[in-house]
Amino acid sequence: MKKNRGRIIFISSFIVLLLLAGLGFLRFGPYKVMVVRGDAESEKHEGHEREQHAREISDDHSSHGPEHDDHGQEKSSQVTVWDDRFEIFMEHPFVVANKPTKFVTHVTDRITLKPRRKGSVTFVLTDNDGISKRHVEKTPARDGIYIPRLTFSHSGIWNVSLNIAVEGKKYVVKLPTIKVYKSQAEVDRAAGTEEVAGISFLKEQQWKMPFATEVVQQREIHSQAVPAVPESAIIDESGKPVAFVQLAGETFEKRYLKLGKKDHGFVQVLSGLSEGEYITTKGAYAIMEAGHELHNDESIVQLSEKDVRRFGIEVGKAGPGEFEVYLSVPGEITINTDRMAHIVPRVPGIVREVRKRLGDPVKQGEVMAVMESRDLADFKTAYLASIERFELASTTFEREDKLWKEKITSEQDYLDAKKAFAETKIRMRSAEQKLRALGFNAKYLEKLPSGSAELLTTFEITAPFNCTVIQKHITLGEVVKDDADIFIVADLDTVWVDLQVHRKDVGLIRKGQKVIISAQSSVPETKGVIGYVAPVIDEKTRTALARVVLDNTSGLLRPGTFVTANVLVKQLNAEVVVAKNILQDVGDKTCIFVKSEHGFEARPVTIGRSNERKVEIVSGLRAGETIVTKNSFRLKAELERVAGGGLAGHGHAH
């Protein structure tokens, strides 16, 4: 009887446990997940939506078998684009040429805050040759979600845009370029895209409520332009202001903010947000409920003093510090066009000699080619004839002038001689100026009358300055026109680095800032100074040009090389600054290990500005707290071991 009673108690306990787990009150693993719940029917419907959403993205993946990558999962990409009218969130597997590929496309109207429930969306696919193909998806598969199967005819980089018509007006939303692979084998070898970590909040959840995001931008606060956001975006969390940043269509990140002045419904943001980021202005509390938080009890590692010494763990006080803040900007090494020249012959002719080849260095005044020209012979003989006429007219005028003074000749003869002298002088100067316009200097013209007959038809093409031949369009015996670029030369002792600065970063860039240029191992790290910042934003790229002039006497900086420029934008003081290498990814959180009376706690923190070695801690850590400064990775490994690997992250946080 006792045995039966024990069995009944055990079975009843097990059933209770299962019920608790099903209701969400029993937690397994290191995380506590808080989900927005309604009544039982809506909860059931939401679970069905989640399953269907996941199935739509992944059902096409399973048909290819486990050979697609090392883990049997097909690689995929996510794209989120905001424009004035629509937010587009697209998910798709890596694309193979001539293979229909499913693009799960969520379309949200940012004016009505609703999903697009009807009407077509046209997907325009354009290759690098400008050849476009259109696919019209007539209706959404369900509210807000279009699922076209798109086929790209060949591999390469493709531009994709969406044409969406609303109330008689057509909107064009341009997406980032898509890489199309030649084969599935090439996809398998390609590196997968890194998943955006953060709080997951599906579009189906967003569309059930008033939900909106807005870009962080400069606004007038008490007559001063500062980064500001609507007050509706700010949530109070235990006395701390919090906002949620939309990293991707369904992924959000909680930020702790430092706020300033308020004015007309907006509040100044001193730290925690950057211009250009999108924050949640409606529905933020729902994201907070859906957020994942590390459970404190399971984020603490307890070690004996012996183990602390064995692991080489060192601690120190968190405190203020200063560091240099660099902005990373893409760029390209280009030719210094202030020291570049297009060499043209100025008169048509036939090429008799070509003395320089592509890539040859040339000294200023050095002969690069010799040409023969009938037109030039006409100019030179006209000039020589004008000299002879001038000398004859000069002699005649001198004789008539003398006779006129002696009252021997008539006044008319004297005036005729004077007129002839003046006219021949004008013709001689005109002929001389024509030759000067062709590049002949006074020294050359001086020796021309006594030179050989060959000088009449030939002329030399010379270098305008010390340079290198970068283009050559001349061959022996070729007939060349007077406007042909026969050589393009450039002085490569200096080069430009043209930087493309995103519009949200333009305010940080100014003339005179120090820059460190880096590229591949073949290009040495080089320091320079910004010498020019364009006053306008490019309409197509929405970037501004910043230019650095670099010395290149070594010849190692080759125009056409893509580089990365780290621009020193600020030297800052911060309330809490730590070494970057002590940060650890624990689960999906960036953490610092803090020593307390209970052990070493993996404390989630919000990072702010940083450079290669140091990082500012915006929230989660106070000055004066004791933190692990060396070998924090040992504590992470111990935490994962205790949790059975459930907290595995991605190594050091960068």
Could you explain how this protein is built, in words?
With 654 residues, this protein is an alpha+beta fold. It folds into five domains: 2-51, no CATH class; 52-195, Macroglobulin (MG2) domain (Immunoglobulin-like, Sandwich), CATH 2.60.40.1930; 204-293, conserved putative lor/sdh protein from methanococcus maripaludis s2 fold (Beta Barrel); 294-325 and 570-643, conserved putative lor/sdh protein from methanococcus maripaludis s2 fold (Beta Barrel); 374-456. The chain is built from ten helices and 47 strands. The strands form twelve sheets. Strands 4, 8, 9, 12, 13 and 14 form a six-stranded mixed sheet that branches. A hairpin with a 2-residue loop joins strand 42 and strand 43 (589-596). Helix 7 packs antiparallel against helix 8. The longest helix is centred in the middle third of the chain and has 32 residues, at 374-405. The chain is elongated and about 125 Å long. The protein starts with a helix and ends in an 11-residue tail after the last helix. Mean pLDDT is 81; it is low at 1-72, 292-296 and 645-654.
Assembly annotation: single chain
Low-confidence parts, pLDDT < 50 over ≥5 residues? 1-72, 292-296, 645-654
Number of helices: 10
Largest sheet: 6 strands, mixed
- Number of domain modules: 5
Radius of gyration: 38 Å
**Could you report the average pLDDT, rounded to the nearest whole number?**
81
Question: From the helix content, strand content and strand pairing, which structural class follows?
Answer: alpha+beta
Any idea of the CATH topology of the largest domain?
Answer: Immunoglobulin-like
The N- and C-terminal alpha carbons lie at a distance of 63 Å
Give the proportion of residues in helices: 10-25%
CATH homologous superfamily label of the largest domain: Macroglobulin (MG2) domain
